[in-house]
Amino acid sequence: MSEGQFRVAVLASGTGSNLQAILDALHGGPEGIVVAGVASDKPGARALERAQQAGVPTATFPLADFPDRTARDAALAEWVAGHGVRLVVLAGYMQLLTPAFLQRFPQAVINVHPALLPAFPGLDAVGQALAHGVKVFGVTVHFVDEGVDTGPIVLQRALELPHVRSAEEVLDALHPLEHELLPEAIRLIARGAVRIDPADPRRVLLEP
Ligand code: GRF
Prior knowledge:
With 208 residues, this protein is of the alpha/beta class.
């Protein structure tokens, strides 16, 4: 593992379009950012194929293979640590991480969420937003804490969609934003331009 590298692990359960955006925008590029491994709870996830196509090591940690979540996340944490990773990126990872996992990688786990948090945390954020009749949708990248989508916000981007009716339309419009915002957050963190405000742990300070 080279000293100058900023090694990242990506956890994904699904299609992996955000993983693909990270691979395309950052992996092996001039910023020294390397996707060191991709793990999933779903053995058949398309994200794993994308990783393999990029020559990135993969691993799967299905809950059914372990006695409980604690044991699964302990194994996952070992795997992450073994790859010399500085940042864990949740890109459509549909499992809650245990407190023990998060304590092992303090302020080093981020997630992308398809809503303007703190509105519409949890599952089906876009469905929740549509049901509420919102006119402005958006994307959030945040640090992961022990709550559900409650950690300090790193970046957000809003999108006015006053006429949309279906979740598919919203997701189609939000994906390009996610694909920009998540790599941008990783780039800023790798550059050391992101820190929690010592005076207010809810606030993330970004260097201009
Ligand atoms: C994204 O919409 C992300 O916001 C949410 O899960 C979805 C993952 O999509 N957390 P993909 O697997 O990266 O295509």
